[in-house]
Amino acid sequence: MPATPSRPFSLALLGATGALGRAVLEVLEDLDVPATEVRLLATDRSAGQEIDLRGEPHRVAAVDAAGFAGADVAILAAGEAASLRWAPIARAAGCLVVDGSAAFRGDPAVPLVVPQVNPAALDAAGEGMVASPGALAVALALVLGPLDRAAGIASASVVALEAVSGAGRSGVEQLERELADLMNGREPPEPTGIPHRIAFNLVPQIGPVDADGAAEGEVRLAAELRRLLGRPGLPLAVTALRAPVFHGHAAAVHLALARPLEPEAARALLRSAPAVKVIDRPAERIYPMPMLAVNDDAVLVGRIRAVGEAPGGLALFLAIDDLRKGGAGNLVELALALLARRSAH
């Protein structure tokens, strides 16, 4: 159980009807978070829906400034545009703010935090606001942080495989539609949420490509991981692909370590790391996969092995539920950590 505040509190959730918002509500229930009030907020398009919370139906209200007034903390789970609009309003209402979008992840004035990795960064939340990283940045930081502290990462190469849920509802609907059409002998319509057909395919582009050929998703992941690890100059190569999987991101990682670390020592280190599960018996065909990570509150890591002729080469494979641990779980833990720090002071 994450750190909890010492007094009752109220929470406002923006984006309550979306996939991430609903996952936040599941985490709140599963952790039995002691909130005296949970305000469910959404844009006008989704307002009026009813959502069950702790066995009781709750009507979702249209977001306005009054929705944040008097709340102790606000979790924003409605996307970048909504965060840019409503985060300042929530702060002006006196709320602590935890943002789940990419809106503030690159803002040096807003701490980017995974509580198990860089909790001290919360001390810099002078404006009462923190940002939660993308799901794969969460996963990589949880796994690479202990390895970096033990052996020093000289450089890293990451191949990121992101589920269509990372593209939002439109990505999920595109894969559903394409699978149904192809399995029934029909030609799918033109893609909508993802720029190419994703069913039975891999798309090696997530976001616009810059002048150097790097896609936005690759640049963001590298920047977030460097920031979480406190390694701004870390040599890091990222290739990100959209995979035909509904939920669960994965990554293949190759590391060059400053000091050699045997695979068994790496496994032992990661077994003791918070929010990490080592699943590594490849001879028995047991290793991380997206389908195993779904609904798990840890990042799964395996296929840990030495690579290269020189000592210090290490490879691994990891998977994370992008909505649960990589999204909602980190948002709730950040909200509780902020509240605990406020009550301690």
Could you walk me through the main structural features you see in this protein, from its secondary elements to its overall organization?
With 345 residues, this protein is an alpha/beta fold. The protein folds into 2 domains: 9-133 and 326-344, Rossmann fold (3-Layer(aba) Sandwich), CATH 3.40.50; 137-163 and 202-321, 2-Layer Sandwich (Dihydrodipicolinate Reductase, domain 2). The protein has 8 helices and 14 strands. Strand 13 and strand 14 form a beta hairpin. The longest helix is centred in the C-terminal third of the chain and has 21 residues, at 324-344. The two termini are 21 Å apart.
Please tell me the CATH architecture of the largest domain by its name.
Answer: 2-Layer Sandwich
- By CATH reckoning, the class of the largest domain would read Alpha Beta
Can you count the helices?
8
Query: How many strands, what sense, and barrel or not for the largest sheet?
Result: 6 strands, parallel
Would you tell me the overall average pLDDT?
94
- Oligomer state of the chains in this structure: single chain
In order across it, which strands form the biggest sheet? 5-2-1-6-7-8
Helix content: 25-40%
How far apart the termini lie comes to 21 Å
Main structural class: alpha/beta
| Radius of gyration of CA atoms, rounded to a whole number | 20 Å
* Domain unit count: 2
- Which residues sit in consecutive blocks of at least 5 with pLDDT less than 50? none
Give the overall silhouette: globular
Q: CATH topology of the largest domain, which one?
A: Dihydrodipicolinate Reductase, domain 2
Tell me how many strands there are.
Answer: 14
CATH homologous group name of the largest domain: Dihydrodipicolinate Reductase, domain 2
